[in-house]
């Protein structure tokens, strides 16, 4: 039943599927037509025959038209994107174009044929397996719910019963006679004249040593045949009767694989002091609870990285569930992460011996062993734990078929190819569970304990090692452990105790990787952050996206990395911090590592520039520098929503700045920091802004990037300005101006003067502010920087308002508006409207002021600029106060004040407070 194609079912209610999804067939008449076509799949069914089947001798005049409509409806129902149209017209006939492998009857025929071939070769267990698969395709009578000719029903029912008898023949060959007796009695009661069923029941009774019952059964069955049908039994069953009479004891004594009942108990001890995962354990126990409606065994696939605690969890759950499995518990360590995983045959041999099979009777063939194992546990409630599985192929022969058993599997691999089973990814411990695991060794509320928990990252193995070392080394405290783990390059050295070691646990998975996946994992250690998008993996390897994507999938399947969602359709991943420490160690000697780092950082710079270009223009942003950019396809889609992209990538961007600084890439560090300032400014993220710029500043100075140094100082000055720290702001801006003058950078000089003009205005020196603005405006005009010119006209206007030069202010704002229109910059227009509102308020025109301010607020809110919107709300609050509208003024001022307080803008928050006090 391959995927991505139609599959049709008639062994039960008629159904059509596409890629495993059932398609709606429509009303009853359409389903009946579909059933007719399906019965003759691949052969032509005439329109007249369909009419005859639907209406018999009294078809309506529109019968042909109705048939055409029903066929059209079925075609629509079966049509799927990218799939073929299976109903074709041939003259006045219709054909359901389906291969045998696309129908359940085709599969049933093929499986029963294979079963009979295996039965002839005396491979009984394999034969029984084929027959069971064939019979599992039956979901009810043929075309259930649709009128079908009696001879058709009889034909398929005969085939079904024959398959059941063949399966029983195979089970008898495998020695299942005791178990088959009740089933055969039921079958014979339902079909009392089936000679083969009677003979099989006689055989099962005789082999079980129940000779008298076998002979009595034959006598009653023969009498019924003679009395009711007037015929004698066939020579074959008479010969069986004579064999039982002649050699009954011999039949019972033959070496059929009759087994004594053994209740194995192989679970290893549960880990003492196990804590946490209560919700997950409850969920797993619920899955393992007995359920009479279940027709397959529950198979729980606990998957996760090394050291995550899969085995401890599996054993803990198994011990708690054992009461529901009174027929025993089997455990096998499959050595999936070793160089030589255990073969399924070896594991089955151990299981069979544990179930009472003598060593000499264990089949050499793995399929026969699997069949015998399933036979022995059939009808019993046995719990099976398979630890450290290597993959699906190793597991398949080890799974029971009966619903009474249950299986718990642990593996570092994602076992998505296994037909049975529910995948249960096992992640790191929650903060609360990790703290509980550490609690016996000290106060988990201390700073040191929180640091230890952070360094261990919720990995149970790491926490167990910490606990073990604290218990083994008297005098050690959590503060000592925190100090040891704080040095990343020594962290894995310290996290080992006896045969427990995080490094060796990670190394097991690492050395099993294919060369391409191993190389990618090493190079992930070169990325600045543990959380990364797929494109970054491609850049750091210098490979093709398709090749890198395959390696990423391999790492994900082996739980060396974890999926971290998607952004704009691109997958993101995360490496656990301790696995990343291992990758960093392995990458130390990686050839070409410097270029790989630069390529990856260049990808973030390339995207950040694209995102910043979609945001409101900033006079702080200088001309680009000379750092490497790494363009790639699909970048535009990623930054379509620039604020969202910056928000998603902020941790990586901050880490990238720090990483570039540490790698001596001063040019990259300052460019990344400065281009990200657009987002910091727009979002009011002053702490992040200052931290990023100060980190990059040291790298820029060390690398001699003077233009970058000046740009970073301007950004730092702007942050201090927003925080009303005017002295620090002036200091940074003056130094930026000096450096820009030294390198003859008029744009840098103008930007520094712009900031100094605002400092002068904010400290009560409007005349000086106006003079500085005029100098900066001249510089912007000289270099043709229209954005700078618009900004400085606005700055000039604000200083003029403070000086009472309202006409000058109005003229400057008119020029600013025209420049903004030239730029098509709605954000800058909103700022001009704000200043126009302030001018109108100073001219005692509160209504005109309110009109400008509301237009400004509407624009800013549409761009999600909370900082500038808060400033406009402050102005609106002032205007409402002038108008005497106290409630409206209070609402606007409270909204503005909450933003200023959280952003650390003390002067604006104080202005709100002062106005609110006046309204009280």
From TrEMBL:
<keyword id="KW-0238">DNA-binding</keyword>
<keyword id="KW-0804">Transcription</keyword>
<dbReference type="InterPro" id="IPR036388">
    <property type="entry name" value="WH-like_DNA-bd_sf"/>
</dbReference>
<dbReference type="InterPro" id="IPR001867">
    <property type="entry name" value="OmpR/PhoB-type_DNA-bd"/>
</dbReference>
<dbReference type="InterPro" id="IPR051677">
    <property type="entry name" value="AfsR-DnrI-RedD_regulator"/>
</dbReference>
<dbReference type="InterPro" id="IPR027417">
    <property type="entry name" value="P-loop_NTPase"/>
</dbReference>
<dbReference type="Pfam" id="PF13424">
    <property type="entry name" value="TPR_12"/>
</dbReference>
<dbReference type="InterPro" id="IPR005158">
    <property type="entry name" value="BTAD"/>
</dbReference>
<keyword id="KW-0805">Transcription regulation</keyword>
<dbReference type="InterPro" id="IPR019734">
    <property type="entry name" value="TPR_rpt"/>
</dbReference>
<dbReference type="Pfam" id="PF03704">
    <property type="entry name" value="BTAD"/>
</dbReference>
<comment type="similarity">
    <text>Belongs to the AfsR/DnrI/RedD regulatory family.</text>
</comment>
<feature type="DNA-binding region" description="OmpR/PhoB-type">
    <location>
        <begin position="1"/>
        <end position="98"/>
    </location>
</feature>
<protein>
    <submittedName>
        <fullName>BTAD domain-containing putative transcriptional regulator</fullName>
    </submittedName>
</protein>
<dbReference type="InterPro" id="IPR011990">
    <property type="entry name" value="TPR-like_helical_dom_sf"/>
</dbReference>
<feature type="domain" description="OmpR/PhoB-type">
    <location>
        <begin position="1"/>
        <end position="98"/>
    </location>
</feature>
<dbReference type="InterPro" id="IPR016032">
    <property type="entry name" value="Sig_transdc_resp-reg_C-effctor"/>
</dbReference>
């Amino acid at each position: 039943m391959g995927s991505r194609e139609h599959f049709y079912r008639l062994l039960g209610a008629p159904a059509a599927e596409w890629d495993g999804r059932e398609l709606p067939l429509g009303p009853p008449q359409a389903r009946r037509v579909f059933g007719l076509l399906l019965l003759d799949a691949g052969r032509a069914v005439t329109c007249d025959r369909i009419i005859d089947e639907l209406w018999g001798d009294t078809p309506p005049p529109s019968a042909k038209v109705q048939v055409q409509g029903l066929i059209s409806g079925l075609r629509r129902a079966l049509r799927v994107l990218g799939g073929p149209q299976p109903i074709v017209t041939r003259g006045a006939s219709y054909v359901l174009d389906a291969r045998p492998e696309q129908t359940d009857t085709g599969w049933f025929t093929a499986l029963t044929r294979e079963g009979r071939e295996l039965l002839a070769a005396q491979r009984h267990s394999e034969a029984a397996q084929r027959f069971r698969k064939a019979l599992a395709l039956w979901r009810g009578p043929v075309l259930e719910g649709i009128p079908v000719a009696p001879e058709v029903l009889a034909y398929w029912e005969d085939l079904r019963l024959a398959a059941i008898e063949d399966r029983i023949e195979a089970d008898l060959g495998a020695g299942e006679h005791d178990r088959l007796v009740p089933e055969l009695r039921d079958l014979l009661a339902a079909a009392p004249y089936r000679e083969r069923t009677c003979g099989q029941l006689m055989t099962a009774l005789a082999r079980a040593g129940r000779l008298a019952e076998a002979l009595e059964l034959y006598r009653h069955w023969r009498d019924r045949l003679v009395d009711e049908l007037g015929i004698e039994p066939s020579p074959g069953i008479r010969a069986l009767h004579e064999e039982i009479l002649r050699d009954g004891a011999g039949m019972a004594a033959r070496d059929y694989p009759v087994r004594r009942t053994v209740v194995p108990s192989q679970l290893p001890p549960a880990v003492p002091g196990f804590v946490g995962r209560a919700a997950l354990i409850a969920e797993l126990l619920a899955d393992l609870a007995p359920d009479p409606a279940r027709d397959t065994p529950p198979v729980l696939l606990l998957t996760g990285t090394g050291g995550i605690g899969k085995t401890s969890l599996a054993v803990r759950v198994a011990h708690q569930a054992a009461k529901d499995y009174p027929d025993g518990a089997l455990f096998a360590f499959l050595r999936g992460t070793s160089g030589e995983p255990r073969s399924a045959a070896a594991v089955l041999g151990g299981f069979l011996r544990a179930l009472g099979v003598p060593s000499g009777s264990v089949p050499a063939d793995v399929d026969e062993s699997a069949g015998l194992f399933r036979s022995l546990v059939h009808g019993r409630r046995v719990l099976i734990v398979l630890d450290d599985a290597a993959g699906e192929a190793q597991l398949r022969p080890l799974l029971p078929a009966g619903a009474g058993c249950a299986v718990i599997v642990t593996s570092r691999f994602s076992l998505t190819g296994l037909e049975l089973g529910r995948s249960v990814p096992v992640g790191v411990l929650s903060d609360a569970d990790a703290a509980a695991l550490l609690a016996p060794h000290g106060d988990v509320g201390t700073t040191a304990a929180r640091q230890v928990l952070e360094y261990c990252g919720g990995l149970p193995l790491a926490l167990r090692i910490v606990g073990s070392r604290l218990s083994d080394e008297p005098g050690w405290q959590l503060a000592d452990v925190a100090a040891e783990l704080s040095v990343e390059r020594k962290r894995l050295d310290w996290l080992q105790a006896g045969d427990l070691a995080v490094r060796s646990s990670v190394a097991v998975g690492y050395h099993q990787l294919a060369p391409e996946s191993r190389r990618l994992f090493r190079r992930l250690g070169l990325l600045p952050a543990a959380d990364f998008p797929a494109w970054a993996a491609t850049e750091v390897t210098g490979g093709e996206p398709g090749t890198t994507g395959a390696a990423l999938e391999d790492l994900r399947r082996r739980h060396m990395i974890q999926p971290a969602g998607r952004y704009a359709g691109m997958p993101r991943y995360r490496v656990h911090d301790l696995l990343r420490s291992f990758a960093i160690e392995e990458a130390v000697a990686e050839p070409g590592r410097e270029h790989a780092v630069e390529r990856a950082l260049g990808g973030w710079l390339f995207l950040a520039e694209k995102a910043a270009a979609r945001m409101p223009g900033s006079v702080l942003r200088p001309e680009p520098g000379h750092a490497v950019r790494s363009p790639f396809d699909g970048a535009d889609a990623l930054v379509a929503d620039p604020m969202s992209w910056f928000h998603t990538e902020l941790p990586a961007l901050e880490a990238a700045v720090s990483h570039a600084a540490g790698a001596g890439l001063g040019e990259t560090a300052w460019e990344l920091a400065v281009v990200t300032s657009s987002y910091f400014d727009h979002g009011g993220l002053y702490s992040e802004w200052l931290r990023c710029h100060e980190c990059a500043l040291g790298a820029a100075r060390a690398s001699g990037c003077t233009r970058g140094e000046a740009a970073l100082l301007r950004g730092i000055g702007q942050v201090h300005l927003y925080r009303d720290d005017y002295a620090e702001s002036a200091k940074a801006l003056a130094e930026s101006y000096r450096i820009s003058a030294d390198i003859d950078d008029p744009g840098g000089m103008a930007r520094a003067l712009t900031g100094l003009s605002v400092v002068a205005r904010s400290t009560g020196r409007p005349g000086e502010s106006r003079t500085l603005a005029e100098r900066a405006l001249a510089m912007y005009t000289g270099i043709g920087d229209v954005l700078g010119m618009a900004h400085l006209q606005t700055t000039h206007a604000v200083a003029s308002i403070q000086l009472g030069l309202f006409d000058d202010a109005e003229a400057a704002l008119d020029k600013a508006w025209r420049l903004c229109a030239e730029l098509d910059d709605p954000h800058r227009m909103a700022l001009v409207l704000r200043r126009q509102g302030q001018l109108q308020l100073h001219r005692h025109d509160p209504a005109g002021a309110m009109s400008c301010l509301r237009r400004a607020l509407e624009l800013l809110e549409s761009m999600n600029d909370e900082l500038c919107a808060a400033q406009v709300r402050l102005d609106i609050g002032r205007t409402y106060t002038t108008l005497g509208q106290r409630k409206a003024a209070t609402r606007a001022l409270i909204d503005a004040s909450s933003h200023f307080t959280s952003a650390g803008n003390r002067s604006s928050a104080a202005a709100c407070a002062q106005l609110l006090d006046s309204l009280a």
